[in-house]
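Box 3.1 A note on notation
Throughout this textbook, protein chains are presented in two layers. The first layer is the amino acid sequence; the second is a token string describing backbone geometry. Keep the layers aligned when reading.
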Amino acid sequence: MGVISLVCLLCFASVTPASERPPNIILVLADDLGYGDLRSFGSTHIKTPHLDEMARQGVRLTDFYASGSNCTPSRAGLMTGRYAVRSGLAHQVIFVADEHGLPAEEITIAEMLKPLGYRTAIIGKWHLGHTPQHWPTTQGFDYFYGLPYSNNATPLALYRGSSKIEEPVRQATLIDRYTAEAIRFIEQRPDRPFFIYLPHTAPHVPLHVPDRFAGKSLAGLYGDVVEALDWSMGELLNTLRRLELDAHTLVIFTSDNGPYPQGSTGGLRGSKGTPWEGGYRVPFIARWPGHIPAGAVSSGISMNIDLLPTLKVITGASLPAGLKLDGRDIGGLLRGGSESPHDVLYYFSDERIAALRTPNWKMLVQARYRGIDRRLPEHDVLLLFDMRADPQERYSMAAHRPGKWQELQAYLARGQQELEALARKTRKN
């Protein structure tokens, strides 16, 4: 490990001595934003000056992944640091008629931070259960303003706390209102640490945008929406500067999965709902002046399940003894280091492992053909990709590297034994 990486790891491990207040945290999640939809990740059609500035002042992770290729599984992984099969939420998304949700025994980021004195808010889309026992305010959040599920659902209402305040929802103003609510929450008690989870409803379809952004982007209405999200990030960052909270606030921006039906994967294969890179790899930017070096870039593999354990280390929070986490502390990557704490990351198709990624390789074992999910090795199709040479997943090296195939096959068997078996057990219960 290099000297810089070692120093950075030590710095992260000691950022919150007992005498210091832990840092504020703002976690912004776009909905269905593609890997290639930001200028700092290669977009040529969409202007994102505020997010680009955030990247210049912080770190970009180039090989960061969602933990699911659609909404509910990915958000379950992000909130708990655990693959969604552990909470029973790996199968599809939660629909309006569903009554299940994130189990009460799961520990969310908000629940982890509250004992440290954090004020906690979710402003935006929850999508982890909408019955009273699964409402976000039962999962560690003091305040909720937003939608319980995706913006294409019917019926659709906007809530403040547990109260319905608008139906139908004026979706064209949601980005503005989410931003104003987040700023108001920051301003209420800037003397206390806060955690704001801001999962935008955009650019999920149907697309809606404030009038002042309409028709501005070279990428059509989709681009207008992404440029409005960029404006929102600028407002949040300006608020932190105005309140002199800038150096004491970690800000993270990412997406819940790849794009659908519009948006750019940056040349990666596949899109939302698939185990190809375009479905799982998402943009990630983190900024924390004085703690994250400006202009840092890391290609170490990481996933949204890593956020909870990383924030645990940064804040000095505690978790129940024996809690099984799949995520790891990626403090070294946030400092620009290249060595991932993961030997392997798993991609799921519902409750089955469809692919896996190691630092340099990817095995894909399940894909959809003519509407049917097929286990490819059973059809004599062996897909093994060198991710450094071929991130577009075009040419399998399985015939040339049989030893590497066997190495990843062992990881697959291990994951199937633990995670797929767990999913079957969870279903029976």
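The two ends are 45 Å apart (CA to CA). Residues 46 and 223 are 6 Å apart (CA to CA).
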